[in-house]
Amino acid sequence: MSIIHLTDIVLRCPSGLDHNLPDESHISLKVLLNNNKSKVIGPLIKGSESFWKLVENLQLPTGVLSFKITPRRLENYEFTPLGSAEFFCDNLIAMSLAQINEVVQPLVAATCDGPAFELCFSSVVIPSDEPPTIVALNEEQIHQVRAVRQSDQHPVVPYEELAHREALATMLHYQVPESRRKEFLQAFPDLLYQQAVTLRDDDPQKQDMLPTVFNLFHSRYAQDKNPLDLDKAIAAVDDVVKITPDGHPRKADMLAQRGAFLLLRIEHQLGNEHIPTTADFEGAISDLERSLTVTPDDGMRKPNRLRNLGIVFRHRCDLTGDINNIDKSISALNDAVHLTPEGYPSKPACLCQLGLSLTSRFEVTRNPVDADEAISAYNDAVQLTPEGHPDKQSYLNNLGSSLMRRFEHTGELIDADEAISACNDAVQLTPEDHPDKQSYLNNLGSSLMRRFEHRGDLIDINRAISAQNHAVCLTPEGDALKPLYLQNLGISYSSCFERTDEVVDIEKAISACKDAVRLTPDGHSDKPERLLGLGTAFMHRSERTGQLADINEAISVYTIAERLIPEDHPDKHSYLNNLGISLRLRFQRTGDLVDIDNAISDHIDSVRLTPDGHALKPGHLHNLGLSFVRRFERTGDIIDIDKAISAHNDAVQLTPMGHAKKPDRLNSLGISFMHRYKHTGELSDIDESVSAHTDAVNLTQDSHPHLCGYQTNLGNSFTQRFTHTGELVDIDKAISAHNDAHTRDLVDVDYAISSYNDAVNLIPDDHTHKTTFLNNLGEALLSRSELTGSRVDIDMAISKFRLCAKSSAGIPSLRYRAATKWARLSLKDNSSTTLDGYDTALALLPRVAWLGQTISDQHKQLLSIGGIGNEAAAAAIALGQQETAIEWLEQARSVVWGQLLNLRTPVDELRDADFELANELERVSKDLESAGNRNDSFIPSDKQLSMEQTARQHRKLATDWDMLIEKARSIPGFEDFLRPKKLEKLSRAARSGPVVVINVHEARCDALVVMADLDDVIHVPLDGFSYTKAEDLQRSLNKVLSTAGVHKRDARGPQMVSTKHDNLKFEEILSMLWTNVVQPVLAALVSIDPEPPRIWWCATGPLTFLPIHAAGLYNTRELGFKTSDFAVSSYTPTLTALLERPVPAQQQFQGLLAVIQPCTPGLSPLPNAEKELAQMEQLDSSLHIHSLSGELATVESVVNGMQECSWVHLACHAIQETSEPTQSAFSLQNRTLTLSKLISQPFPHADFAFLSACQTAKGDKKLSEEAVHLAAGMLAAGYRSVIATMWSIMDEDAPVVACEVYSHLVRDPQLSSTRAAHALHHAVKCLRDQLEESGKSSFTSWVPFIHVGM
């Protein structure tokens, strides 16, 4: 293709008049083609007062229709156009063919000031490989330049000889060939500077050379971005300022130049995440202000200097936060705009800088006037910039960003629409290879995202992802902005996932956000924001999959991000809000109250920090309400649900109609009213609930994935109102709503019910919300069946509850409740699936009380869901499945202790099959046991991060444990590894005597006797007993004990008194136990024997707190009417606790640790404790007693002693802590030895414990099946045999029992704890005889002593 060559290009002033351009003026040509591409050539070389010559050709392809040439003068880094001329290529080609050699074109002046110029050149059309030669000017400099250009190796004139010639040096800088330019810049500026500084200050040549020096250093900085070159440029201009006297015309220019260079150094520091020096800020401001005092208002020097001053003030405000700086910035930039003539090319750039400063002030003050004025400034900049101008897209982009900021503050959709329009125009005007293209694409994507959040239009989010993906693809690796673009892309994918529920979207979100975090260095100011995006992605995935690991990841990154963000950061509220959400989600999975308390605290702070009118405030209020609801569901505190309704009401009121989140907030408000209705029974609350849910459904598009949830909740509201009013229309509406939730378009209710199974298939099986929908659907069907008696509805309800319970996704506690409903409904109808339902519920217990929680939280979880074991066992017995009943009771009782024992299960056999797996199981089990005993209550704020890391590690260990167990079960022969034990193995617990498991339930009461030599369970129906009778007996006993003063928390003392009336009442209780419980059992087992056999009692329900071992008729002295006449009684919390544990070969007795506390600080004295020790020390020396008394009995010394000894005797006060069972404790000298501490310690020689203290086997009524008392804790700690007390004991009785027990034990040559039950049996008989002889016979004195374990 041919090329048009423009040669001999000359700019001249035809009038010959003085053109007022300084001699050092730098003039170049900007060429703008009609395809919006541009290029700059020059500089032009001055030939005379009115003549400049370009020493190179301009080449244009013949395919270009037209082009515009604009000569420009550079001053203080601002280009001033001298006019422009437009040329059409067709005309030039015609002139070339006509051999018209010279083209002369007058320039259209940019302003009316100054002389008129004209542009002259010759045009030649020739092939591109034959460029025409340049017509040389008749000047020596041009000859030298041509020589330099013709040689790529050595310049004709050495640099050193040219250094003193300023004009030629500048020309050389721009005219050397590209291959030589870097070499030139590396050497020449320093050589020139060295020569300049050797000259005298009064030498005019020095004053001429130094400006060239600092310009060259600046050029080298622009090429390499080496800050040392900026330092040299500033040093050079410093030299000029110093040698230029005050009052000299150049002084103001040099001050302004130094201020401009200092501004450039400040921006370099900021761009590289460094803090500029105070000296640079003060120097730049001083120089620019001094220059302004002598700069006249006319011309462009003053506006340019005001603009630089405004920029410096803005940067200082951003760094220091001093609002006075941004005020000064805006003042300076306002003056600059007003002094810049209309139509002047630099006015749009000045307006843009004013917009930036106004935006900065808006970010601090949130004054809407600043936002309005910023938008006005940007809008003027856009309007004043002609089409095709290369800066037009930048101004459009800034306008869009400013409009979007105002939208985020006010929520006015028109701002979002206009912002997207401006950003889109900026993208369309920017060539693909433009360095700012990706930035404009990112801003467009972010703006579309914000509008999507408001409107919920999928077109917006898809466009946002497209633009942001494009931005990421255009950004090279290593670019500082790539992490930002990746983060925004990840956020958009997260939002898209929320709308579409497509798993691929959330996977892409996590991937993009991870890359953003990875590419952002630690310490970077944007690191918190990157972490925020990643946490949001993890949180969204957890809501879809229900994976606790994702919630933990979200909390971890949110916590780190929130700690990194300063307290006064304007976005602090967003970080707190997201952290609160993630903590709430984890609470819903684990039930850890610490999480929901922290979530509410974070949400309250988030709302407090969010300014009124802020677009995010409704969302923060909504999340605060949700957290209050969750805590109310757990604690039942009416204050929480009142606060929830208040927060949700505010959120709804502040959310405008048409907002995408309005239905969701209405739905939450409806749920809150529903909760309060269930608590108070106020009909107005259920009416409000129906109203809110109805509005939520009506405002939701048919294609929205949350519609099914809203409709389900609407159905629940109608169901509840039906139960209150009995109006059939309400239950019909409930079924209809559930039908809509699952089948969308189906309206016929009968067809809906028959199609429910198909409807739930619309929700993916692995979706964590599917279980919720199934459960709610089952509830609605059940409600209608209660009205109509429809067998179909019941069967369908059972089906839905079964699917919910069997689902692999969903919250374990919800699935557990669904399983219980399935079992109970089936039991009512004698369905064959009853046992399956109970079996499923029991299998979920370890998931509800998960090992990833502390022991305390596991107990709280079990308390929140209620017991199922007794109910399941009663059902199994009714169906003739006594073996199943035994297995289920074992599975449902002492769940927490059972899991602890599993952690201590030897893995020797597994080690033979998989050595590494066994070792890993041992490691994880030890770490898990330690983690389960941590206490997260009352954590100081400065420790919460480390505690969160500890809790996260705990949950990871639990997840690892589950995976390792599954891996072990995949090994042949280990399929049942750590699964619930079957009767075949459990029956070994009865190797030393029968174990009687007594199931007490509202439906029936039965005794199930396990004997080692029998394959079947002996079933003894307790027809004369009931759950109600057991409760009555428990209440009667508590009353007697309270009257006698033996229910005091720490009472072991002489103040306890038992009246004759109390004894008679006690006798009545023991008589009823004998008649209704014990006698029927013993009748089936044994006869009177001089040496009574052992028998173990494993009671349930209220019977757990009654003294079965003392049951009998005490109005007669004949044998055969008391439990003790037939057997030596022991108790056990479970059969598993009696199974043989591996004992190290030839384990020797390691002595007895006696802990004696006669005077514990803060508690009543126990004077007989020392007597107790004295009597023990008088016994056989084979006991090897190691005593710790008084001040020696500290927690540390006692634990150490227990680790060294086989037996331990604790004569002290004890505390039963019902609110925190694991904090039940023995009171020692320096502090309490808690149950949680005991079970966390290794006691390698543990064998027998005598707890000569009060209430050590009392237990907790609310957790009757969990045996949360000190005696059971000692079993869990490894002691095989324990003597304990059911209530407080007399201080004077304790030495009698202790002495008799140890006297009986030392009779055998080989000390054995297996004789402890017989020893206690004998000791209690002795105590009872002594009391009768002294006339002080009292059941409250001898009955509390019991034996637990082997």
UniProtKB/TrEMBL annotation:
Domain CHAT as annotated: residue spans: 1068-1349
Q: Which Pfam families match?
A: CHAT (PF12770)
Q: Which SUPFAM superfamilies match?
A: TPR-like (SSF48452)
Q: Which residues span the membrane?
A: none
- Give the protein's recorded name: CHAT domain-containing protein
